[in-house]
Write a structure and sequence with these properties.
Number of helices: 15
Largest sheet: 7 strands, mixed
Bound molecules: NADPH dihydro-nicotinamide-adenine-dinucleotide phosphate
Structural class: alpha/beta
Length: 479
């Protein structure tokens, strides 16, 4: 079976007729092919988007909203099919795709279908000058959306939904490693009545297809989620063309545990924040810092709880941790375990590749806990993006704050404490775009989402996303 590009409301083959193998991470087998799209395909997608723009940008908000709500419903109606596709493409447990990925993709369309009807701009009366200023929020035109493989449809729709709600037309590229649900979204958009050309999906490699989107002189804004190195490259390409850029990049998030926390709740959530989605979530708390007085207790309890996390085939009901997304990624993550050992880290649990009976070539790995001798070692500083966490003790608030902030990233942080004053002090000082206190990954789609430092530029979510996907224009009228 072949995946095709979705351009001007039609599924089409790549112009060069070149294809890339797509692997099933659960067994290491090629199960379909995807277009290796070139610049010419991106140009075709751009032209389709450009020709749809004048009509779509003038479509009433009520009508845009109605179509997007229909997309949301159809995603819900196709929950099983989409979840199975996501699980097969990515290696994540089927129950997780059903409970999180696909419902959230549906919510993204529903949320922005509603948000656009509430979006407003300012007006300023210039008192004493007989003038009124108002701000128009106009769609940009054709915009590019590029998303990663860890939460494929979830993050793809998180960009597309606000872009089209704001009246733009889109050229989008999912990760070449997980293209399937983006492919299926094409049909859903057609069925929902999204006009031809409003959304165009081009598949292929980041370095060619993705690069062609970023380089396109008339694609005026790029919303990108992915690694920090890729984000740097994109910024370098796009900046001289003065493109608007939203970059959601990597993280190395601290999970800070004080002795006064609700211990059981913390323990349960920490297992999840460490290993959910095989640890392949940019928000995972991959650096665990524990107050010294409960450190030994935590080590025992955490190791015990993690040892009960069943690694297995994504379709097996009891599986908590599925397969990693690809062979090169598995190798990268395993290599970090070796680096940790060389740096004096002690593997408290896991550290090895796993073979699952009947699926011997799948990309499985044990959930891994590494006790590190210093917060400055590489496994504590570099993003691993797999089922690996580090742990170490701390003695004071000042010490842990310094360690938490002493990385180049600043996406999220989790804090476990029942001390209100400490919560306020720490939340103010943690260098992160999001601070969770006594919880993790609790999301309200109205809130600003994004990171500081090397974790990105700009914010998604709520009206922030609608602001990104529109150009403000000041109109000043003298009367
Ligand atoms: P990559 O940066 O490798 O890829 C992200 C996307 O960019 C893919 O679609 C990729 O295509 C494409 N791409 C690669 N090179 C280029 C290029 N030169 N020009 C344009 N597009 C390009 O990230 P991963 O897919 O490996 O995702 C993991 C990373 O994403 C982690 O660092 C993680 O932290 C981050 N992430 C950040 C989130 C956030 O909100 N801050 C959320 C989720 C993940 P292809 O795959 O085909 O190469």
């Amino acid at each position: 079976m072949n995946i095709q590009n979705y351009i001007n409301g039609q599924y089409v083959n790549p112009i060069n007729n070149e294809w890339i193998d797509n692997y099933n991470p659960s067994n290491g087998e090629v199960y379909c092919q995807i277009p290796n799209s070139s610049k010419e395909d991106v140009e075709q997608a751009y032209k389709s988007a450009q020709s749809a723009f004048s009509k779509w940008s003038q479509t009433t908000l009520e009508e845009r909203s109605r179509i997007m709500l229909r997309v949301s419903e159809l995603i819900e109606e196709n929950l099983d099919r989409l979840a199975e596709a996501e699980s097969k493409d990515n290696g994540k447990p089927l129950w997780l795709a059903k409970a999180v990925d696909i419902p959230r993709a549906s919510s993204n369309f529903r949320f922005f279908a509603n948000a656009i009807t509430q979006f407003a701009s300012e007006s300023h009366e210039s008192v004493g000058q007989n003038a009124i200023n108002y701000t128009l929020r106009q769609p940009i035109g054709v915009v590019g959306c590029i998303s990663p493989w860890n939460l494929p449809l979830y993050l793809f729709s998180w960009k597309i939904a606000p872009a089209i709600a704001a009246g733009n037309c889109v050229v989008a590229k999912p990760s070449e490693v997980t293209p399937m649900t983006a492919y299926l979204l094409g049909d859903i958009c057609t069925e929902a009545g999204l006009p031809k050309g409003v959304l165009n999906i081009v598949h292929g490699l980041g370095t060619s297809t993705g690069q062609a989107i970023v380089e396109h002189p008339n694609i005026k804004a790029i919303s990108f989620t992915g690694g920090t190195a890729t984000g740097t490259h994109i910024a370098r390409t796009a900046a001289p063309m003065f493109k608007k850029l939203s970059l959601e990049l990597g993280g190395k998030n601290p999970n800070i545990i004080f002795a006064d926390c609700d211990y059981e709740d913390m323990l349960k959530t920490t297992v999840r924040s460490s290993f959910a989605n095989q640890g392949q979530i940019c928000l995972c708390g991959s650096r665990i810092f524990v107050e010294a007085s409960i450190y030994e207790q935590f080590k025992t309890d955490f190791t015990n709880a993690v040892s009960k996390q069943k690694v297995g085939h994504p379709l097996a009901e009891e599986t908590k941790i599925g397969a990693l997304v690809s062979k090169p990624h598995l190798e990268k993550v395993l290599n970090y375990v070796e680096i940790a050992k060389e740096e004096g880290g002690k593997v408290l649990h896991g550290g090895n590749q796993l073979t699952i009976e009947g699926h011997e070539n799948g990309y499985y790995m044990e959930p891994t806990i590494i006790e590190v001798p210093s917060d400055e070692c590489r496994v504590n500083q570099e993003e691993i993006f797999g089922p690996v966490v580090t742990i170490m003790p701390f003695n004071s608030e000042e010490e842990v704050l310094e360690m938490a902030n002493k990385v180049k990233y600043g996406l999220s942080a989790t804090l476990w404490t029942n001390d209100l004053k400490r919560t306020m002090r720490m939340s103010n000082k943690l260098q992160a775009g999001i601070v969770w206190v006594n919880t993790w990954l609790m999301r309200d789609l109205r809130t600003p989402f994004g990171g500081v430092k090397d974790s990105g530029v700009g914010r998604e979510g709520g009206f922030e996303a609608l602001r990104f996907f529109t150009e403000p224009k000041n109109v000043c009228i003298k009367y």
